[in-house]
Amino acid sequence: MLINLTEVLTRDGKIMEMDACLEMEVFQSKLGSFPICRKEPVHLKITNTGNRILQVKGKAELEIVVPCDRCLDDVHYKMALEIEKEIDMKQSGEDRIKALDEHCYIDGYNLDVDKLLYGEILVNWPLRVLCKEDCKGICNVCGINLNHETCECESTDLDPRMAKIRDIFSKFKEV
Question: What's the mean pLDDT in 20-31?
Fold first, then answer.
């Protein structure tokens, strides 16, 4: 959704509050493609602080389907995002890039809510997502989900670099 900022830029101290709908259905990054299963409207408060500088504050809640890091089952991960940005509208797009303050969510006098939230989701992406704290993961040998079934595979968790030493010990057991 695009929000036209020309009205809030008309005078210093002007405030514009609104609820914007998130149009993004899937979050795509280099990590993969993750469907957004629930999303609340994004509440934004845009304030002209003077000298063509805008302060953007907002809140958003959404739920993304992410695979568990151990067993690969789908997890509905809830994200509550707090947005706080300051945008200098005097700068051109090239000036922002030179200042390493890239606002890819600003296009002329329009604020792209989807691009703004994309950056916030990316910054707040969790390091690890688990379906439950005691997730058993998948078997290294046969690949079944150990939370749902058990397998008869050998469960020695030895370092593969130690395989030769394990072979030596197994030869001594035979003698």
Answer: 92
User: Taking Cα atoms as reference points, which of 16, 111, 118 lies closest to residue 62?
Assistant: 118
Write out pLDDT tens, residues 102-117. Answer: 557 888 788 899 999 9
Count CB neighbours of 54 within 10 A. 21
In the prediction, which pLDDT does 82 show?
A: 95
Question: CA-CA distance, 100 to 77, in Å (whole number)?
Answer: 31
The answer to whether position 131 is within a domain reads no
Residue 100's pLDDT band, with cuts at 50, 70 and 90, is low
CB 47 within 8 A of CB 15: yes
DSSP string, 49-72: EETTEEEEEEEEEEEEEEE-TTT-
CB atoms within 10 A of CB 64: 21
Q: In this structure, are 64 and 118 located in the same domain?
A: yes
Domain hosting residue 28, numbered range? 2-123
